[in-house]
Structure formats: structure tokens, C-alpha cells
Amino acid sequence: MSELVESLLTPFQYDYMLRAMWVSALVGGVCGLLSSFVTLKGWSLMGDALSHAVVPGVTIAYILGLPFALGAFVAGLLAAGTMGFIKAKSRIREDATIGIVFTSYFALGLLLISLFPARVDLKTIILGNILGISDPDIAQVIAISAVTLAVLALKWKDLMLFCFDPNLARTLGLRAGWLHVTLLSLLAATAVAALQAVGACLVIAMLVTPGATAYLLTDRFGTMLWLSAAMGVATSLAGAYASYFLNGATGGCIVTLQTLVFLAAFVFAPKHGILASKRRVRASRATTLPAP
User: Fold this and answer.
1) What is the pLDDT of residues 235-268, one digit of tens each?
2) Is-contact 193 145, C-beta < 8 A?
3) Average of per-residue pLDDT across 218-230
4) How confident is the model at residue 215 (pLDDT cuts 50, 70, 90)?
5) Which of 129, 209, 267, 286 is most enclosed, with most CB atoms within 10 A?
6) Nearest to 58 by CA among 114, 104, 126, 115
């Protein structure tokens, strides 16, 4: 028994594992909070677009020797601006616009990586590198997380109203345009932070899955925020911990665990799960059957 406990505590003996776990938990919590707004707004595709659109920014930052967070954030904002411009100036639907922009930016990033293979770490960009995260990168993640949390703490009610009904937000005197830009900026910044943990390919999962899971479990947005944040922290911490024993990609472990939690909620959620829906259907049929 003591050997089992000692074995389970082994990851806590290594500094790189401790750093990976607490940084993953921080990123997971911030992504979980923001994913509630993404789910309410229906911006899953937007999150996917921004998570892929940061790749050329990261690549250019690597090539120029600049902080990768700066390049990623600028690329994310440029991608969001490009999508907004195309939507405003053409008849193209929003989903098509998002698809065109994010694939174009992602392709540009891959092209730059192929042109400068010796100066860019492809694995870090695509899969993340949380186990080898450096002190400057940790500082970037902390700064991005602190700013995001501060903005959400101050503006969460306004952002909630904007996500729920932009027209109502305008009627009540809120500046919907600024709220739109704020949410896009937070989404781009958080995608940059999550890039370190899970890489560009899996950022969208951390920005959508916790919020979607919480959406199945509650009808109150305040509760949804806390649930999605708690799930983001717990699954990121547990995923990073499990990756030590599985010897697998940390990002893959985190996202797989989040998916399993979502599937559990999808089936067993007390009000919106599949089993609950079947019980309501059976009860409805029972009340409509004629008495013998």
C-alpha cells in the first residue's frame, strides 16, 4: 500500500511536473470561464478560427526572436478583424468567412514553418510544450490570465447580456461594438495562453468543452461560469498529472479527460441529459394514454 501511495506521489517530486500541473490548471480555469461566453454566444467556430489563426503570428515571432505571445495575439486580432471586414463588405455567410480566414492563416503559418524549419519548433506550436515551459513563457501565461480574469470580473454581466442578445444590450445603452472587440481580444489572448498547454490543434477544445459541459448541467449563467471554470481547472490538473504515468502528450490527456466529462454530462445530466430526456418522454406518454 505504501509503495502504491509513493508511486502516485512521484510526479510531485519533479519541478517540471509541478510547473506543468499548476500552469495547466491556471490556463484551464481561464479557458473554462471564457468558454461559458463562447458557448452562450455560439462562437465555437470563432474560437477554432482564432486558435489556428495565431500560428503564423507565433511563427513570425519565433523567426524574429520576439515573444511568441506578442506575435500570436497580433495575428489573432488581425484574423478577427479580417473576418469582420469580409462579413461587413460581402454577402458571404459568417461560417464561410470564418472557414476561409482560419484556413488561410493556418496555411500561411505552415508555409512559414516549412520555409524556416530550423528556426521554428513545429511540435511546440502544434502540440504545445507545457512540460518544458520556460520562465518567460510562464510569466506571459500569468500576465494573460490575470488580465483576462480582471476583465471578466469587471464586465461579466455586460458580456453575458451581449452574448445573450446584442440588440437588447444596445437598447440598454451598452456599447455592443466595444463588447464585441473585448470578447474577441480575450478569446485571442486566451488562445495564446492555451497554446503552451495543448498546442494550436487542441486550443478550441479547452475554449468550448468546459462551457458546453456546464451548459448541460445548469440553466443559470452564474452557476455555469463556476462549473466551467472548476471543470477546466480539475481536468487540466488531472490531465497533466495523468500524462506522467501514461507517458502521453499532456494536451491530449487534458482534452481527452474533458471530453469524457462532457460525455458523462451528455448522458447523465439531471435535466438536459439523454436519460433525463427519455424519462420525460416516457412520463409524457404515460399521462396521455387513456385510462383502462
Assistant:
1) 999 999 998 888 888 888 899 999 999 999 999 9
2) yes
3) 92
4) very high
5) 209
6) 126
Closest Cα to residue 183, out of 273, 80, 277?
80
pTM: 0.84
Task: Give the pLDDT confidence of 125-175 residue by residue, as tens digits.
Answer: 667 777 777 787 788 888 888 999 999 999 888 998 888 888 888 888 888
Task: List, in order of start, the domains of the chain with CATH numbers.
Answer: 2-283 (1.10.3470.10)
Cα dihedral angle (144, 148, 150, 155), rounded to 10 degrees?
160
Question: Between the CA of residue 218 and those of 96, 115, 160, 192, 225, what are the distances in Å?
Answer: 32, 48, 15, 29, 10
Where do we find the cell 473554462?
Answer: 32
* CA–CA separation, 35 and 57 (whole Å): 23
Grid cell in block for residue 19: 510547473
> How far is residue 292 from each of residues 245, 281, 282, 284, 287, measured CA to CA in Å?
61, 20, 18, 17, 13
How is residue 201 written as a grid cell?
490543434
